[in-house]
Design brief:
The protein is an alpha+beta fold. The protein contains six helices and seven strands; from the N terminus they run H-E-H-H-E-E-E-E-E-H-E-H-H. Strand 5 and strand 6 form a beta hairpin.
Length: 141
């Protein structure tokens, strides 16, 4: 079966589709690889719709503001189009627009992570006998 072209996919996001479920839209916009992961993120409070925690079945329409937290990054996007099905990455990028504040916050966080030491960077394998004695002394054994 041939893949639908971008113009065919536009029919799905066109004026006939005014709203869709939040978890479905997050999956179609490629914020999550699986719809189940999108549902779990919404249930876990990692996604806010217009500043309020929402359920996965909540309807999303154009103009809504969505805050998505994945790992240490939080993205704030404005919904530009509605999609019911998952398309290519280039089509998915047309479904939303990231706010300027969100972009600058992510860039600042990336810069801070560059200069921060990686946790456990000074540890090298198993403790030596000398290290073990120091640990025992420190912990009171």
């Amino acid at each position: 079966m041939p893949r639908p072209s971008t113009s065919e996919y536009a029919l799905v996001t066109g004026p006939g589709l005014l709203s869709t479920r939040l978890d479905k839209w997050l999956w179609a916009a490629r914020f999550f690889k699986h719809r189940t992961a999108a549902t779990e993120a919404v249930d876990g409070g990692k996604v806010k719709l217009n500043g309020v925690a929402a359920k996965p079945a909540r309807e999303v329409k154009a103009g809504d503001r969505i805050d998505v937290t994945a790992g240490e990054e939080t993205r704030t996007v404005v919904v530009r189009a509605i999609a019911d099905k998952r398309g290519s990455a280039s089509v998915a990028q047309t479904l939303y627009e990231e706010t300027a504040e969100s972009v600058t916050q992510r860039e600042q966080a990336r810069e801070l992570r560059k200069f921060a030491a990686t946790p456990g960077a000074d540890l090298h394998g198993r403790p030596t006998k000398r290290d073990r004695r120091r640990i025992d002394r420190f912990s009171g054994h």
